[in-house]
TrEMBL record, chains A, B:
Pfam families with a match to the protein in the record: ALMT
UniProt-annotated location(s): Membrane
Keyword Transmembrane attached: yes
Family: Belongs to the aromatic acid exporter (TC 2.A.85) family.
Biased composition (Basic and acidic residues): 476-486
Residues annotated as signal peptide: none
Region (Disordered): 476-502
Protein name: Aluminum-activated malate transporter 10
Length: 502, 502
């Protein structure tokens, strides 16, 4: 906005001078120079502002995740170390000008996470080896076939192998594991096979290339694993736990907000709540990152709580299960924002049931998050909470069944509470249209609880595959669960009280 | 399966011999050899089966999208052409051993689409230029500072610039446009700056590197644009149109199936319908590919119906809008599969309204798909269909309003049709629980129609930005729309008839 304003100010000023008119003959020259000067000033200040904004954005990137800055320093460090090859004579004498390949290897294989770096190193070494052997073979065949035919043999082999290797990159199972390796295969094969036509010491070239790549790769692996390592697997694990908490917050918050709309809140608190409510959107959009992390995770050795063959693929299933819940929360959100307003009477009638379902459902999700986070099975607690959720759903269904009486109160003889409630409400008989939003909400909540059961199964499958221990730290754990449950209860009660005041 | 069976057969045979007992002394040797032979046979046949399955998968990849095969041939072709550099003496003499850089450029910048290749070429050339200039400057400064200090100046500059460039790759706005360029910058800078310490003819090296990269890039651009070009923009355009059709099919199909569950269908037909119903899942999962296509699309020159600065970003908005519809269809699907069965009476009562909403909504989506596909605005038709959708929604709301009479038929004096319907049904009075699924379905359908209106706005915005023409081919167009509408009407009528028979 601001740079535009500056430019506009310049233009505005120019018009004022032109409108002056008194010194019209002189104005064009002065005006032009001034115009140019002001235009230039505007451009410069606009540019400066852009630069400032860019620097601010960059600063935010760095402060939001300091590990990114550490990654950059690690890249610089690895490159500075590998440059030593060039500067130290004994090393230079060993591999000669080919030391450059070590530098190149560091530049292209160094990735932010250990898994991605290992994947690239392994692929680079494997691709180079395979291509090197094949290329030397092809070169030998070509050199036996006479000088005139040689270029054609080499050219044809490059064409065929490059096409085949490119095709292999398009097959999903190859792509997920060896995409980079296939690229390096094509690169090395073309390099060695074609060089063979001009370079005499082909074996030496291939040997140097392979050894420098191994040196570069080893250096990368050392730096990435020793200096503040970031593990893909650990990242995936944390992402799943974080997303589960976000899902629980969204579900809880959005139902509570609906039944508590009359309750006042400060603006800043509302903003924080809004952020919480939107948390499920992170779940919706994290599929791609989950997949790449799981893909790189399997290259990582045992680290922290995770073994070498930790079932990363199961995390993808948990992620998919969470997304299926998030789709429903999206529908829930839209039904909450719907234009059809529900009758207060119905809101009162179903409020407690809906809040119970949402809070018990989110408790299950939070408990699952805790299970995944600590990697300790607490099946009894999960089962208990899941049972609580099921009974809450059953309660909501029962509440739904009693609604027809509200539609026509005279049909229930002697039902005092309901009759009192009806007489207190402004509209004694509720129309079906006023009922639709809450009924929809209730039935989406029921669906969500069903999907959470699938999520429980997925987490249990993970616990089985990854051999989660039993959490014996009973006192601490039960205290935590109790706290969660009591927090949720308190929240529900508060909302219910607010509801009573409506 | 088969390899396991083979292995098992071998084991079975060994046990039989051991049970024989009569020639026990001789058995171990023969048994071991046979066992080894059979085990080897099993391994080989298992491997052969794996290879066969892999080849089948590869064949499927090729036959499903022949353009992938063409892409592979293009890569081979480009590499074979660039190899000529090495084989033809005049060219080789021009750039010497550095001709290898042209080969490497072709290998790494050749991508399946024109946009991606242009992006990489541009980034590679720009990164190389910038880094080359900087590195030569740094080399000059270093060489002035004395032989002992030189390695440290070079090392420090590599460390600083590599860290800074790596950091820039983590800033989203830089990443989306110059990620590859920053990588190449680091690569070239390290290469030239560090080489400067050992190589005398540094200018020549930088010059050769830049000219070979330009040669390689130009060749790639020529091949990718002249031989069966695949445009990212065109792909994105088709993907959006295809997804719109899928969305319309899913929406239509899933509501029709729900109200037509009693209607029989052959198995193969059901399978085809199921595939159609699942179409919305493609919409849910195509965010990442849409983004990368839009990203590459902006590098592409004018092609086909698209100008250089075609508003590709607006396609992302349309995609997001479609996904928001797809979330609701997901919820719709789950509500259709819900365990609570709706009463037949209610299904009959709301069926026609729901079917009208779904068919008019999908007509709007199909019309939008047609608009995007032909890039011709037919605002009158879209408006007409949108109006039709709105009035269908209004009709459904009215139908909902009359439901309470079904809950208590005696309340409506003289409403013959409804009373007849009630007396025909097995349960004269419907419980609310039997009503919940249909009410939920109706309210999700209403929500979907609201989201489709947002989609209409997004497409209209695209029409404005991309300056869509007016479709003057009236007869053809109205014929098409008429066909769509009449098809939908026929379908609705058929379902309604089936519904009457229930």
């Amino acid at each position: 906005m601001a740079p535009r304003k500056e430019v506009f100010e310049g233009v505005e000023w120019r018009i004022r001078v032109a409108a002056d008119g008194s010194s019209e003959a002189l104005v064009p020259a002065t005006g032009l120079a001034r115009k140019a000067w002001l235009g230039l000033k505007g451009l410069i200040s606009g540019f400066a502002l852009k630069v400032r904004m860019f620097v601010k954005k960059a600063w935010d990137v760095g402060t939001n995740d300091p590990r990114k800055v550490i990654h950059c320093i690690k890249v610089g460090l690895a490159l500075a170390i590998v440059s030593l090859f060039y500067f130290m004579r004994p090393l230079y004498d060993g591999v000669g000008g080919n030391a450059m390949w070590a530098v190149m290897t560091v530049v292209v294989v160094f990735e932010p996470t250990v898994g991605a770096t290992l994947y690239k190193c392994f692929n680079r070494v494997l691709g180079t080896f395979l291509a090197g052997f094949l290329a030397v073979g092809v070169h030998w065949v070509a050199s036996q076939s006479g000088e005139r035919v040689e270029p054609f043999v080499v050219g044809a082999s490059v064409f065929l192998l490059a096409s085949a290797a490119t095709f292999s990159r398009l097959i999903p199972s190859v792509k997920s594991r060896f995409d980079y390796g296939a690229l390096i295969f094509i690169l090395t094969f073309s390099f060695v096979a074609v060089s063979g036509y001009r370079v005499d010491k082909l074996f030496e070239l291939a040997h140097h290339r392979i050894s420098t790549i191994i040196i570069g790769s080893s250096l990368c692996i050392l730096v990435i694993m020793l200096v503040c390592p970031i593990w893909s697997g650990q990242e995936l694990h944390s992402l799943i736990v974080r997303n589960m908490d976000k899902l629980a917050d969204s579900l809880d918050g959005c139902v509570t907000q609906y039944f508590n709309q009359s309750g006042e809140g400060t603006n800043s608190k509302e903003e924080a709540t809004d952020n919480k409510l939107q948390g499920y959107k992170c779940v919706l959009s994290s599929k791609a990152s989950e997949e790449s992390m799981a893909n790189f995770g399997r290259w990582e050795p045992s680290h922290g709580q995770f073994n070498f063959r930790h079932p990363w693929k199961q995390y993808l299933k948990i992620g998919a299960s969470m997304r299926s819940c998030a789709y429903c929360i999206e529908a829930l959100n839209s039904c909450i924002k719907s234009e059809n307003q529900a009758a207060k009477l119905i809101k009162q009638h179903l409020g407690s049931g809906c809040l119970k379902v949402s809070s018990s459902s989110s408790n299950v999700i939070r408990e699952l998050a805790e299970t995944v986070k600590t990697m300790k099975k607490k099946s009894s607690t999960t089962d208990l909470l899941a049972e609580e959720m099921k009974s809450a759903v059953q309660g909501l269904q029962n509440d739904l069944k009693t609604i027809p009486h509200l539609l026509n109160p005279s049909a229930i003889p002697g039902n005092k509470t309901l009759e009192t409630a009806c007489s207190e409400a402004t509209t004694p008989t509720v129309t079906l249209m006023e009922l639709v939003p809450v009924v929809t909400l209730a039935s989406i909540l029921t669906e969500i609880s069903g999907r959470i059961e699938a999520l429980v199964d997925a987490v249990e499958e993970l616990a089985k595959l990854a051999d989660f221990g039993i959490n014996d730290d009973k006192s601490k754990h039960s205290k935590m669960t109790d706290k969660t449950v009591s927090d949720a209860k308190q929240q529900t009660e508060g909302t219910m009280k607010a509801l009573q005041r409506v």
